[in-house]
Amino acid sequence: MSVDAKLKSLGLTLPDAPAPAANYVPYVVSGDMVYVSGQISATEDGLITGTLGDDLDVAAGQAAAKRCALSLLAQVKAACGGDLTRLKRVVKLGAFVNSTADFTQQPQVVNGASDLLVEVLGDAGRHARSAVSSPSLPLGVAVEIDGVFQIES
Asked: Got the DSSP string for the chain?
């Protein structure tokens, strides 16, 4: 099943690839690798803001991380000229969770992104990753995730 068909079967659609908010590019293609800049937690209605361990629980954080994963896939689709069949695998995610000093469930929050990528891509969605705490993130968002992807060149 294609990535687009799998997303549709899950009732999900990719957002438009978000434009960069400062002096950087949304992705860089080097050979068969795509390096995607950090994607912040947002829906079509706006930013998903808040702090894990304060005004957000793990489930809300997972939902925010899932939205980051959809934005990552949207950027990869743009990098592939709109053809997600070129995506070979997710290599690595770097995740930042806006959380209090005593919150320790960053890995469970980031599972929202990891689980989605595996559900959509199967084994090609399995990846290395980091999940770290941050005392704040741009615009007050709950989660930001960057990624490295391998594509057919």
From this structure: --HHHHHHHTT--PPPPPPPSSSS-SEEEETTEEEEEEEE-EETTEE-B--BTTTB-HHHHHHHHHHHHHHHHHHHHHHTTT-GGGEEEEEEEEEEEEB-TT---HHHHHHHHHHHHHHHHGGGG--EEEEEEES--GGGBSEEEEEEEEE--
- Which phi and psi angles does 92 have, rounded to 5°? -155, 145
Taking residues 72-100, what's their average pLDDT?
97
The tens digit of pLDDT for each residue in 1-10 reads 889 899 999 9
CA distances from 93 to 20, 46, 65 (A): 18, 23, 11
Which residues on adjacent β-strands are paired with residue 93?
129, 147
Question: How far apart are the two ends of the chain, measured CA to CA in Å?
Answer: 21
110 touches 130 (CB < 8 A): no
- pLDDT given at position 59: 98
pLDDT (0 to 100) of residue 18: 84
